[in-house]
Design brief:
The structure is a single chain. Among the domains are: 171 residues, Immunoglobulin-like (Sandwich), CATH 2.60.40; 102 residues, Aminopeptidase N, middle-beta domain (Immunoglobulin-like), CATH 2.60.40; 149 residues, Zincin-like fold; 131 residues, Zincin-like fold (Alpha Horseshoe), CATH 1.25.50. The protein is an alpha+beta fold. The protein is built from 26 helices and 32 strands. The chain is globular. A hairpin with a 4-residue loop joins strand 20 and strand 21. Bound molecules: tryptophan (TRP) and zinc ion. Tryptophan binds next to strand 20 and helix 2.
């Protein structure tokens, strides 16, 4: 592979395509190392453009061109150009014409898993973002929409099942041969990134569905042979998703068939190809013995996400890749709402915010920060990020908060109606809500264009004599790459004032900035705003940023006493949880500083006691109580540190906090554990899952003292569990704290589950995340395990990815050895699968905030990568931006 000097693509350079491709007829003859792809394209100059349309450059990569015909005549050699990026017709006809190309490709040699590849003998495709060009020559850009007809042919023994997008057409045996064929036709024009084709020996689970308006749909879930008992939950989740989208957004399905195919080699979670979603099997397969509650929830959420793309992504797609958040942010918002309606809304909100803070906030505060809608890129695959997805969803949520649910719903309806069949932009999307709300959205648009996490600082003042209360809010946003200074954004701050009796007070606002008129909503649009309330005789405690109404960092002036008060009285479940988190975080920040300075850390006894009272409150749902028992994450703490992160000090502080729970609240924790025991057969439903989450959160804290008593409980749970959730939670405790007991349990676990690669991923992950410098040696040894393969992204993520991204203690070893190890793996993967390599390299995203000794070692590892030959565009882009 040669080193690309990646060229920068800019949003401002967008031009509509000079040619359109109305239809494409594909004829694909599958064979393991030489698949023949014949494509017939009906092309015409784009009538929206005037004058000479110039040459036609079709994208094409790693294709072997075997033949080329224009309007049925072979094309002369001097009529076209061929290079490693594609095929250019130098002087195409001015009238509509038909181009026929014949290429061969090698699916078995495709380790990048982009284009057509084989996974455990199954042919499958992945075309987003730019994989279709590895199948045939095409205008591989999202604003070229074509009607696809796909004929697939294969040996019956090699691929008894043949699938593509749309509705099934003619199919049958090819007489006198051992081959057969199937034709699929997709009536909905679509961009090439939504194309899919599957061929293989698959098992099928099938059910009938009828849409609200009466369209019968044949629902199919295809899995590898032997996995069919693990597909029922996915089917159920699909049906529930379809009903929900009809209820919540009025969206129905639009084809006769909807298929999901699970494959074991997959770069990401899943892909929304029209009518033929292809999934990482991790997000399809689920059975009580092998999948945890979190796995079930993941399956349900990803099935919903991909299904929801049928409207937000497929019926309305993106004009160009800068608009990626148009489909991803919106679809994440929709899947979050689905899960909130299906399970516990407050718990889902807490989990989403935790994820946002852990991944997106750290991305946004480092060298890889970029706006929700980037203005330039060198490799689009590197922009499927927490910022585009998760912050993109937060932007939609803020929009809904600002304009209210009815106006938001009307804007969505308008969007679907106005842009159905379009390749749209963020401006067009936002214009729908500007219209339904009658508001100027220009400041709100800054959420799409400015990177960085805004900080909102709050100062409060109570004047008992005048009986007034004022809240002053200030917003700032730190500089990010290419954006040294920022403009103020529209930040919705949901709030309430809570009086000394614990009830919300209904105070009259007397300031002029109450623009929206919504009670309980501050619309912060300027750099600084002051609110004044009259008739407030006693100092209230403000509950600010309720339900985490904006993706910002809030710096308020509340005392610990105020937070204890909110933990007891706040009616907003998110902020009640947040009060506990903030107290823990403040303590952890102080303690890690003390640890670094060799001072006594102290112990957070009073905070822990207050949290235990809340967590013991049986009027709350068990899943919510479990969230109360989970301390802030490592990145949460790291983000609060300004002068050099020392991972060992953070770890020491986190351990002290957990041990304070076990030392001072052991009996209560054990009581909670016992009270959450379930006396019924396993079910993955939210209610049971909540009880298990509570029980296992209590167990994890209880065992933080590594006492025999606690380890005995973990051992008993491991030995007797009838489901993977309890078994894995117990195993985690034994592995982290149990020494030899951990090794024994790991051995048994491997023996029991070695037939299930997705379970073995958990086995890899638990070992890779032990917070100990020696874990590096364990990971090196595990790479030799027969169950490991650098060619399977799930294995790589489980062992190497979790070591690099979820084990800050071991990854940040003081001697820098782990940085060197991960850098070597990045280079190894660079040649095999650049996308997975680039993602692994993202583990270095916060290197600049490390204390100097580690920072220099991390820099050296990055520089070594940067200096290597043959870097893919993906890795080159990340390493260059990381070092900039
Ligand atoms: N569009 C997919 C989703 O979010 C994700 C995706 C983008 C993807 N590129 C991919 C999946 C490459 C697999 C491989 O639903
Ligand atoms: Zn998506």
């Amino acid at each position: 592979m040669r080193t690309d000097t990646p060229q920068t693509i800019r949003l401002e350079d967008y031009r509509p395509p000079a040619y359109l491709i109305d239809t494409i007829e594909l004829n694909v003859r599958l064979a393991p190392d030489s698949t023949r792809v014949e494509a017939q394209l009906s092309i015409r100059p784009n009538p929206a453009l005037e004058g000479n349309h110039g040459p036609l450059s079709l994208d094409g990569e790693s294709l072997k061109l075997e033949g080329l015909e224009l309007n049925s005549l072979p094309l002369a050699n001097d009529a076209y150009n061929l290079d490693e990026k594609g095929l250019t017709l130098l002087d195409p006809p001015r009238e509509p014409f038909v181009l026929r190309t014949y290429v061969t490709i090698d699916p078995s040699a495709n380790t990048q898993l982009m284009g057509l590849y084989r996974s455990n003998g199954i042919y499958t495709t992945q075309c987003e973002a730019e994989g279709f060009r590895r199948i045939t020559y095409f205008l591989d850009r999202p604003d070229v929409l074509s009607v696809f007809t796909t004929r697939i042919e294969a040996r019956k023994s090699d691929a008894p099942i043949l699938l593509s997008n749309g509705n099934p057409g003619e199919a049958g045996d090819i007489e006198g041969t051992d081959r057969h064929f199937a034709v699929w036709h997709d009536p909905h024009p679509k961009p090439s990134y939504l194309f899919a084709l599957v061929g293989g020996d698959l098992s099928l689970v099938r059910e009938d569905f009828s849409t609200r308006s009466g369209r019968p749909v044949d629902l199919r879930v295809y899995v590898e042979k032997g996995n069919e008992e693990q597909a029922d939950f996915a089917m159920d989740a699909l049906k529930r998703s379809m009903v929900w989208d009809e209820d919540a957004f009025g969206r129905e399905y639009d084809l006769d068939v909807f298929s999901i195919v699970a494959v074991s080699h997959f770069n990401m979670g899943a892909m929304e190809n029209k009518g033929l979603n292809v999934f990482n099997d991790k997000y399809v397969l689920a059975a009580p013995a092998t999948a945890t509650d979190a796995d079930y929830e993941g399956v349900e959420a990803v099935i919903a996400h991909e299904y929801f793309h049928n409207w937000t992504g497929n019926r309305i797609t993106c004009r160009d890749w800068f608009q990626l958040c148009l489909k991803e942010g919106l679809t994440v918002f929709r899947d979050q709402e689905f899960t909130s309606d299906t399970r516990s809304r407050p718990v889902k909100r807490i989990q989403d915010v935790r994820l946002l803070r852990t991944h997106q906030f750290s991305e946004d505060s480092g060298p890889l920060a970029h706006p929700v809608r980037p203005q330039s890129y060198r490799e689009i695959n590197n922009f499927y990020t927490a910022t585009v997805y998760e912050k993109g969803a937060e932007v939609i949520r803020m929009l809904k908060t600002l304009i209210g649910p009815e106006t938001f719903a009307a804007g969505m309806d308008l969007y679907f109606q106005r842009h159905d069949g379009d390749a749209a932009t963020i401006e067009e999307f936002i214009a729908c809500f500007a219209q339904t709300s009658g508001r100027d959205m220009s400041r709100f648009m800054r959420w799409y264009n400015q990177a960085g996490t805004p900080e909102v600082t709050v100062a409060t003042f109570h004047d008992p004599d005048a009986a007034t209360y004022t809240i002053e809010l200030t917003q700032t946003c730190p500089p990010t790459p290419g954006q040294p200074s920022k403009e103020p954004q529209t930040i919705p701050v949901l709030f309430a004032l809570i009086g000394p009796d614990g009830n919300e007070i209904d105070a009259q606002r007397t300031d002029a900035s109450n623009l929206s008129g919504e009670p309980g909503l501050i619309e912060l649009s300027d750099t600084r705003q002051t609110l004044t309330f009259a008739g407030v005789r006693q100092r209230p405690v403000p509950s600010l940023l309720r339900n985490f109404s904006a993706p910002v960092k809030l710096k308020d002036d509340l005392s610990e006493e105020d937070r204890l008060f909110l933990l007891r009285h706040d009616a907003d479940p998110f902020n009640r949880w947040q009060a506990a988190q903030t107290m823990m975080l403040d303590w952890l920040l102080g303690a890690q500083r003390n640890a670094r300075e060799d001072q006594e850390m102290g112990a957070p006894d009073s905070i822990v006691a207050a949290i235990m009272v809340a967590a013991g409150d049986t009027t709350f749902d068990p899943a919510y109580r479990a969230e109360l028992l989970k301390p802030p994450s490592f990145p949460d703490v790291a983000q609060g540190i300004v002068n050099g992160v020392d991972p060992d000090a953070i770890h020491a502080a986190m351990e002290r906090m957990r041990q304070t729970f076990s030392a001072t609240q052991g009996a209560v924790l054990d009581e909670i554990r016992a009270s959450a025991e379930i006396d019924a057969p396993y079910s993955p439903d939210a209610e049971q899952a909540g009880l298990r989450a509570l029980k296992n959160a209590a167990l994890a804290l209880l065992a933080s003292d590594s006492s025999d008593a606690a380890l005995d409980k973990a051992q008993a749970q491991f030995d007797s569990a009838d489901n993977m959730t309890d078994r894995l939670a117990a195993l985690g405790v034994l592995v982290q704290r149990g020494g030899n007991r951990g090794s024994q349990a790991l051995k048994r676990f491997y023996d029991d589950f070695q037939r299930y690669p997705l379970v073995i991923d958990k086995w890899f992950m638990l070992q890779a995340t032990v917070p100990d410098a020696d874990t590096l040696d364990a990971v090196r040894a595990l790479m030799e395990s027969p169950a490991f393969s650098m060619r399977n992204p799930n294995r790589v993520r489980a062992l190497i990815g979790s070591f690099a991204a979820a084990n800050p203690v071991a990854f940040n070893r003081l001697d820098g050895e782990s940085y060197g190890f991960v850098a070597e793996r990045v280079l190894e993967l660079n040649a095999l699968n650049p996308q997975v390599a680039a993602r692994l390299l993202g583990a270095f995203r916060s290197w600049k905030t490390l204390e100097p000794a580690r920072r220099e070692k991390a820099r050296a590892a990055l520089e070594k990568i940067a200096a290597s030959d043959g870097l893919s565009r993906d890795v080159n882009d990340i390493v260059t931006r990381s070092l900039a």
